[in-house]
Structure formats: structure tokens, C-alpha cells
Amino acid sequence: MTDTVLHSPPIASTPKKWKGIHAAFRVSKPSEEQASLHMLSLARTNLGVRLRAIDEASLVLDYQKKIYVTVTEILKAPLKSNSTARSFEWDEIYKAESLIALLYSGEQLRHEIDARLQELATVDQVEVDNLRRDNQALLRQPADGSNLGLDDSIFRVLLLRVLESIHWNAKKKFLAGPLRVQATNRILICLLASFVLLVAPYGLLISDYDTADSPVHKIWSLFALYTALTAGLLGAFSSRLYGIQHQWAHMNLDEVFLQREWPYTLLRAGVGLCGALIAYIFLRSGIAEGALFPKFGAVRIELVTVAGDDAVPAIAMAFAMPSKDLALLTFWCFLAGFSETLVSSILKSTEQELADAATPAQAARK
Fold first, then answer.
1. DSSP 3-state assignment of 306?
2. Above 80 in pLDDT, residue 27?
3. Distance CA 39, CA 267 (A)
4. 247-284 CB burial, b ≥16 within 10 A, e <16
5. Half-sphere exposure in the Cβ direction for 113 (13 Å, CA)
6. What's the rounded Cα separation, in Å, for the pair 140 and 312?
7. CA distance linking residue 99 with residue 71, whole number of Å
8. SS3 213
9. d(Cα 207, Cα 217) in Å, to the nearest integer?
10. Whole-prediction pTM value?
11. Dihedral over alpha carbons 43, 49, 53, 54 (to 10 degrees)
């Protein structure tokens, strides 16, 4: 009798199993390059439709016929697989779009100007207002059959100006996107580091404090100044992050490139530190007093003890938190680092007060 040998299928290794499970549940998402390729393909398709909407037989001028042939050849060229080369293909798309604009005439030309002005209004309202004034000035000029061709050429030039603004803003957005990511990442790293420096004393106090009667190390004598400087540093980086998020669209290309540079980031940090130091000296001088300003004799970290209640009398907790005056000092120095105009306003107001105080004394001596 012949024994039958059963061969079991090979058991997949654990890493392969996890890869298979991950692949089964993974949702396919287009990468950035694929998205760019799809958008480029759609833009070329739309331009092809726009070109077909123009009656080639209506083109009577030789340069318009040449433009029609040139745009056709641009749109027939195959798409590049290289992502770097593909980024330059957008320039060809913009070129084809501008060339098609030279083929419009009459009401179609004027309608295209209005539509493009509305598109530009979403990114550059100031430029749109200037171009609309020029468009209205051209529309008010009398036109008859004898100068219709001349009027169309003027309107084509205006349309080209509108398209140049649209293309410039689109190119700027394409170039500024990666720079914004780099700048934001660097600011977040600096913001996190300054935050850790600010709250570090609250953690270090645990290792330097045992009982209420035990003295703390002499290094804590610099605690108020340390808090002021680190709060100013945190305020400076917070201001940078806020500016990147809310003012990015209004920056020119030179300012966009400047945002990701480490020297510029460190320069803003230095300004924040100096502002916090000036605010610290101003508050310590006692020139301004009141409930909104800290009393340095009460600047400290307080241990707030919460005793257990009647239900659980054995449980008690202690929290390390800033005193009211320490919180005010931290707030003022953070604000000095965040706002570049706060310190200058304080200095100007103090200068005016000193000048007003010195005036009666000078008059009395006379």
C-alpha cells in the first residue's frame, strides 16, 4: 500500500501577513504627482474644447491662423512622465491659453474679459479693481464699424493683462506651497521648544522641592527673568506662525522665500527676546501700577493643596501653578514678543510722560 503524503500550503510569514492585511484595508489615494497629472490633463482638454469653439474659417488674419496651428501643436504634445518636466508644462498651458485669447473678437472677447476678471477677483482684488477701471474706460469709448478691429486689438491686450495676473498668481501659489510647509514646520519646532523652556521650571520644581520648609536652589533667583525671556520667545514664534497662516496670500515672492530661512526666524526670535526684556524692565520700574501689572514681590510658583473630602479623607493633591503676578508677568512678556508695536508704543508713551514731567521743572528754573 502506498502512503499518501499531503502537502500543506506554505504558511506566510508574519510581516507578509500584515502587509496583505494592510493592502486589503488600504484606501487608494492619488499621490501629489497623480493629482498634478490629472489637473494638467483636464486643463489641456478644456483648452482643446475652447479652441474647437472658435471657427477656423472666421480667422482672416494670417497671424491668427498661425496661432491656431501653434496652439493645436501644443495641445497634441504628449504629457511628460517626469514631475519636474511636468511643472514646466503648466507654462505651456498658460501660453496656449494666452494665444487662444488672441483669437477672440466682438462680444465673445468682452465676455471672456468679464469672466476672467471674476476669476482673478478671488486672488487679487486690488489688481482686479485696476483692470476693471481700464475695461470700463475702453467700453465708454465710441466704436463703429471702421475701428471695430482696432477696438478688438485693444481689448485683446487687456485680456492678456488679466491672464498674466491669473497665471502669475497660479505660479506663485505652486511655488509657495512647499515653502509654506517648510516655514511652518520650522516655526512649529521653535514654538514647541520655546513652550518646553517656558514650562520646564514647573517640572524641575518637583525634584528641588520636598517639604514646605526645604529651601530651593539659588538658581531660582533668575526665575522671573527666565520666565520673561521664554514668554517673549514663545510670543515671537506664535506671531510668526500667525503671520504665515493669515498673511501668506498677501506676501510677494521674495517675502515667501524669506519665511523659510533660519536667519529670518532667529532674527524674529531676537526681536521677541529684546521686546520681552524691555517689558520686564518697564514693569519692574514701577512706572505703571495697577491690577493689570504684576508685583514682583509676589512672583512665584505656588503649590495649591487640595485636601481630601469627608468621603475620601486620605486623598490629597498639590498643584504647582503660577501666582497671579507671575501669570501677569508671563502674559505681558508674551504680548511684548508677539506684538512688534507694543514695545514701541510703551517707549513713546513713556518718553511723552517724561517730557511732560520735565517741562514744568524747566519752566520753574527760568
1. strand
2. no
3. 39
4. ebeebeeeebeebbeeebbeebbebbbbbbbbbbebbe
5. 26
6. 86
7. 7
8. coil
9. 11
10. 0.67
11. 60
The contacts of residue 302 (CB under 8 Å, 6+ apart) are 320, 321, 322, 323
Cα of 91 vs its chain's centroid, Å: 25
CA distance 165 to 127: 8
pLDDT by residue (tens digit) across 197-222?
A: 999 888 887 776 655 566 667 788 88
Close Cβ partners of 342 (under 8 Å, ≥ 6 residues apart): 275, 279, 335, 336
Contact between 232 and 275 (Cβ < 8 Å)? yes
DSSP string of 74-137?
Answer: HHHSPPPSSHHHHHHHHHHHHHHHHHHHTT--HHHHHHHHHHHHHHHHTT-HHHHHHHHHHHHH
CB atoms within 10 A of CB 190: 21
Q: What single-letter amino acid sits at 19?
A: K
Contacts for 114 with CB less than 8 Å, ≥ 6 apart: none
**Cell matching residue 360:** 514744568
pLDDT at 351 over 90: no
User: Which tens digit of pLDDT belongs to each residue from 78-111?
Assistant: 877 665 555 678 888 899 999 999 998 888 889 9
- The residue type found at 276 is A
> Residue 332's closest CA among 224, 245, 200, 247?
224
Rounded Cα–Cα distance for residues 158 and 17 (Å):
63
Which of helix, strand or coil describes residue 212?
coil
C-alpha cell at 42: 483636464
Length of the chain: 366
Q: Alpha helix locations (H) across 208-250?
A: 223-247
Q: Taking Cα atoms as reference points, which of 284, 293, 287, 274 lies closest to residue 331?
A: 293
**What Å distances lie between residue 317 and 184, 201, 305, 313, CA to CA?**
39, 19, 6, 11
